[in-house]
Amino acid sequence: MVRARGPDEFWRKRRIFKLAAHYRSRTRNVYTFAIRSVHRALAYATKGRKLKKLDMAQLWTTRVEAGCQQYGVPLDAFKEGLARSDILLNKKILSELAIWEPRSFEALVNISRERAAVEGYPDIKRRSAFNQVYGLNNLKLD
Known about the structure:
The protein is mostly helical. It folds into two domains: 8-49, no CATH class; 53-134, CATH 1.10.1900.20. It is built from six helices and no strands. α1 (9-19) packs across α3, α3 (31-70) packs across α5 and α5 (91-100) crosses α6 (102-119). It is rod-shaped.
C-alpha cells in the first residue's frame, strides 16, 4: 500500500508548474528548480506589494506638500488646520485635489489658514503673488 501524504502529488506539482510556465530552461520544467524559483518570485511579489503602497503614500505626501508650499503654508500646519476644522480628507484625496482641482485645494488652504489665524499657529505666512497658479483666466493678455 502506498502511504497518502496530503494532496495528490500530481496536482501539487501542476500548481507549481503553472506558476513557472513563463520561466526559461530547467526552471520551467524541473520541479526542484521550478519550486525554488516560484517561492522566490512569490516572496518578491509580497515585498513589491508593500513597497508599492509605501511609494504611493510618499508620492501623495510630496504632492500635497508641493501644493501647500505653493500657497505658503507648511504641511503640518495645513493638516492641523484641516483636522481642527473637522475636514477629514486623506492624503490621496488631498493630492488629487492639489493636482486636478487647484481652486478647491486653495479653498482648503484658506480654511486652514483662517483656523491658524484664530488659534495662532506660528508657521503661517501670507501668500505671495509669485506663488500663484497661473492659468488662462489669471493672465492679462493686453
